[in-house]
Amino acid sequence: MGDPAGIGAEVILKAAKALRSRRAAPRVLVVGDLGAMRATAERLGDVPAPLAWRGGESLPELACGLAVIGRSELSARARRPGKPTVEGGAASFDYVVDAARMAMRGEVDAIVTAPISKESWNRAGHHYPGHSELLASLAKARRWRMMFAGDLLRVALVTVHMGLAKVPAALTESSIADTIRLLAEHLRRIHGMTRPRIGVLGLNPHAGEHGLFGTEEKCVIEPAIGRARRDRIDAFGPLAPDTAFIRECGEFKFDAAVAMYHDQGLIALKTLEFDRAVNVTLGLPFIRTSPDHGTALELAGQDKADHSSLLAAIEYAWRAALHGRAKRAA
Prior knowledge:
Layout: H1 8-20, E1 28-32, H2 34-44, E2 51-52, E3 65-69, H3 86-104, E4 110-112, H4 118-123, H5 131-139, E5 145-149, E6 154-157, H6 167-170, H7 173-191, E7 197-201, H8 216-230, E8 234-239, E9 256-259, H9 262-273, E10 278-282, E11 287-291, H10 308-329
Parallel strand pairs: 1-3, 2-3, 4-11, 6-9, 7-8, 7-9
Antiparallel strand pairs: 5-6, 5-10, 10-11
Helix pairs in contact: 1-10, 3-5, 7-8
């Protein structure tokens, strides 16, 4: 459900309404606070009514939101829209832990995480930069990466939540090669691409200009690309970051790109398709997606939140789960 003070409950219910009108749709189980979900449903009107489900029983055959109450019901104060609290931060952390454990036990096919308040997590004593780091820790994933996917563009990030001054030192041949490999595996497994084309961006202007603007391309990025190619991955670059996302005849020159740092890849992706982009965590033993926006506290409780990105995240997770089922059945 995400932070109870944010737009999580609202966009979940709006997405559930959109799914309800379709002939085929996933069953959505909401791990969160039943009181917050019901209060939001009453405010919105004309959305699926959340039902209580405590586990140990079959899920109702409904393509709508179903609420699993967290470890304890939240106080009215913690559910106030736009007013994050320590209590709400602690609860939203528990929701993620519960969902991850359900996924690892095989009780759900995928998890989709609504936005959390990182500040509230930290105030509650949970010092993680975000969902991905927590999920990787819970799953004991040694190598994981964030990928953002839209209808037009897919980008995986070598580094994520760190200041720009720290990025060059964090780039290693192994970290870049692992990103390329995880991305290629995902594209083959989930998208059915036999030999995906992966464009790898440089770090510096003009991809270093043959060492004039930096040596990261020659010292770490090119060797990483070479390692990937020896593993029969169609990776190429380093591409000049300022022209890498130019579309010739309406198409990119790659199936997905690897960016060296957060904004290098996400400025292009969010400019192109902010409402459709989905955050996907690569390298986990389960499918995890999320919308590419935050808690939007300034919109909470006003019924103005756009559910498009969350709906896209649910659809992506559903398609990935169905593809995984089909492969196992084969």
